[in-house]
Amino acid sequence: MKIAFDSQIFCAQVYGGVSRYFCEIAPRIAKTPGVQVSITAPMHINAYLSHVPRGIVAGFRAPNTDRFQTSRGVNYSRLALRGLGLIMGDWMLRVMKPDIVHETYFSPYRLGPRRARRVLTIYDMIHEKFASSFPHADKTARYKAQAAERADHVICISESTRRDAIEILGLPPDKTSVIYLGFDLMNVAGVRVEEPMFTARKPFLLYVGNRGGYKNFLRLLEAYGTSPQLKAGYELICFGGGGFLADELEMMRTLGLDRGQVTQLGGDDQQLAILYERASAFIFPSLYEGFGIPPLEAMSHDCPVVCSNTSSIPEVVGDAGEYFDPGDVDSMRAAIECIVGSESRRKALIEKGRARLRWFSWDRCAAETLDIYRKLA
To answer: Which of 6, 131, 208, 285 sits CB 3.0–4.6 Å from 220 for a disulfide?
Structure first.
């Protein structure tokens, strides 16, 4: 059986959960006797592909084009490379003639041979449920609907996402399956970084990832900044997501927070692992998630999880989290204060987190995905 992953996400994403997902399952599936796996990613920009075993990736990483970005933030060189990569990837798929094409993102076009059976993964329905958070010209929702329509099978990464996809896209339930993701940070095993990139003056709370819109970071800032206990005893560290924006800085000033109390950091998975290990709690205030890997990453480093009680988050976190209503600042503040103020509760969540992790692994994700391919082939 020949399985091919198309080039879409690898031509668009340097780092990110979607490309990481495929880089985790493809090598595992490739170990199966009688199965040939190819990631057709000519002229890609993805960093994770360099860690995929030799013989799986068909393509090479394109030169860095960041210096060609215009003053308006448009990188025409990258757009040209992306278009060329998709055209070349389509041609490579037609030459390869795979039995299964797993589309890595949402395109209006059918890439590769028409005879191949098609699998699509839907990660969330954020563009449909939070349309106002995206530019009017964003076509993700339309392209997702087209990709789902032509797919022979649709994988959803949580039951919550599956319910939303069936309701919004009108998918037949028997055309869909739920396969949970794994959770471990890439390239951390066996590697230790002696010191993180900063030294916290106090114990700290950890937030990870993008902060805009449905990620609900401003409410977390308010919950933190209106708590005398948290302001006096803890820093708030934000990992990833870029520098603070004007509205975030304005809220910090309004709340009387100085720049030493709320810090934004970047780095690799090794640095993130150390932050998880040293944080007093990991806070996940999102209004909506298709799955949510960061809480599992936190659990894997014995970091207590304080999180929203909405969408797929309770499905993933189970009894290993302290929950709050993400629309209620008082609820969020009380949940965080409860965890940092009770060592026994922190220890209980850590133990429950270790047990919860048994539900999720990339090996299991890859095996269940292979079962879908076999049923279609």
So the answer is: 285
